[in-house]
Structure of diguanylate cyclase:
Amino acid sequence: MNEAQLDLFPSLLLVSNLRSGRIDYCNKDALEFVGSSREDVVGNNVSNIISRASLIFFESYVRPSVLATGRFSELQMTLVTAQQERLPVLSNVALHGEQLYWSMHSAKSRDKLYQELIEVRDSLELKTDELTLLSRLDPLTNLLNRRAASADIRKLLDQVNRKFVPVSFLLIDIDFFKNINDKHGHDVGDEVIGLLSKTLKAATRKTDVVARWGGEEFLIVLYNSTQDDARLYCKYLHERIAEMRYSRADRITVSIGVTQLPVPQRDTVLQVETLIKEADDALYRAKDEGRNRTVFHTDKRAKI
Ligand SMILES: Nc1nc2c(ncn2[C@@H]2O[C@H](COP(=O)(O)OP(=O)(O)OP(=O)(O)O)[C@@H](O)[C@H]2O)c(=O)[nH]1
């Protein structure tokens, strides 16, 4: 086969000396790829057309492997053109005597496609994160919705089961909220719910769970909070809420029902539903006893 026939191959062909690195042969495709004439390439060193990083990789990793096995496949490297453009190629290398036979393919479109795929994946991940966050939040208040809060509470209880930390469950319900809607309209009601949510959020720590549990009902789970802590906390909440002012509505009060996580047995499976039910019973009593107050489920327990 003569050189003219080798020029017909639709890939980059190159022959170089293993020890000196001198290029002995280069086909037409390879010359066009690096943008040089045959005179500029043949007789020169491969280091003139291979990037420094590729050369270091070749010397330290590929050469020993080629010496041991006689070949190396799918070598990813970068060629540097006469215009100093860096172009990715994929090479197979075979050793015959002192000479290395290279066949290379441009990996430009493959790398571009790969890059595009990475960008699409990154933006999809970002979108998924945004959607996951959105699906966890209540749109009016930006607090956790009931479903997300339940999931977070289950995780928290799993943790507390392993290493006990006192936890308080608070159900908070706006008193006579229907009157606000009836007197001022639903929009004003929404504004009250939004402002109250901000107050609740501001009054909690990162480790607590704050959620919109229902229409005008909120759930706060206080992590590392004893019953005495919860009592002080609820007093603080009533005070903060009494201080709140609304542009178009009257002041509001809330009723709070609280339950405390009992010290768990090692194997106890804690039921979120049971704890919520206890807090709900206490809230019902708070409403029954005149509203604008906190009732503890444990107070009732002590009497039984
Ligand atoms: N504006 C507004 N109102 C809501 C929303 N969700 C629930 N509500 C209203 O909240 C009111 C709750 O009324 P009730 O359950 O009778 O309770 P209440 O008037 O707060 O009285 P007590 O809880 O017994 O103190 C209802 O009128 C609901 O329509 C909401 O997202 N926005």
Notes: The chain has two domains: 3-108, 133-296. The first strand starts at residue 12 and ends at 17.
